[in-house]
Specification:
Blueprint (H helix, E strand, L loop, with lengths): L1 E6 L6 H13 L2 E7 L10 H11 L6 E6 L3 H8 L3 E6 L2 H17 L4 E6 L9 H9 L10 H15 L1
Parallel strand pairs: 1-2, 1-4, 2-3, 4-5
Bound molecules: adenosine-5'-diphosphate.
Adenosine-5'-diphosphate (ADP) binds next to helix 1 and strand 4.
């Protein structure tokens, strides 16, 4: 069975990577869908996020990574996948995720959302917090994969010049 894991991944974190690894171990195919919403401003552009995640999952042959500009359920309908995977941390995540799943169900009732709880190691990891840590000179090396740490360092450096 194929599962879709959509997100902004701006930037991808070790929490995201853990969900990808666990999903790739359960499902036949994992399709990571990177949101590329033209109305949103991202810290890393779509191609940068694509490159980072492709490198992160390079050793796992059953994982594909794709950019997508529209609704996730539309992608699911087009690709024939029936499952959307979302990772959840605290209860606060669940509120939002539950509403989103209801919305997606209303849009496309054949597509189911499933939730995977984070590993406790990644409970506090959040892309927005990691960007703050990076911009204020904190150490983020344990929070993101090496390819992301390198890109963050370069981006922070470029902003200082
Ligand atoms: P979005 O903008 O779609 O919420 P994110 O990149 O923030 O995109 O997150 C993508 C998915 O990964 C969401 O389901 C989110 O709850 C989940 N996620 C984010 N951080 C973690 C983490 N540390 N552990 C587990 N799941 C996470």
């Amino acid at each position: 069975m194929t599962v879709i894991y959509p997100g902004s991944f701006d930037p991808p974190t070790n929490g995201h990577l853990d969900i990808m690894k666990r999903a790739a171990g359960i499902f036949d195919q994992l399709q990571v869908i990177i949101a590329d919403n033209p109305r949103k401003t991202y810290f890393f552009g779509a191609q940068e996020r694509l490159g980072m995640i492709r490198e992160m999952v390079a050793d796992w042959p059953n994982v594909q990574v794709t950019l997508w500009q529209g609704l996730v359920v539309k992608y699911a309908e087009q690709s024939g996948a029936r499952l959307i995977l979302r990772g959840v941390r605290a209860l606060a995540d669940f509120d939002y995720e539950f509403e989103l799943s209801m919305m997606n169900r209303a849009l496309s009732p054949k597509i189911e959302t499933i939730f995977m709880p984070t590993d406790q190691k990644y409970f506090v990891l959040r892309s927005s917090a990691i960007k703050e840590v990076a911009l204020f000179g904190g150490d983020f090396s344990e929070m993101v994969p090496p390819v992301v740490a390198k890109a963050l360092r370069e981006r922070v450096q470029a902003r200082k010049i």
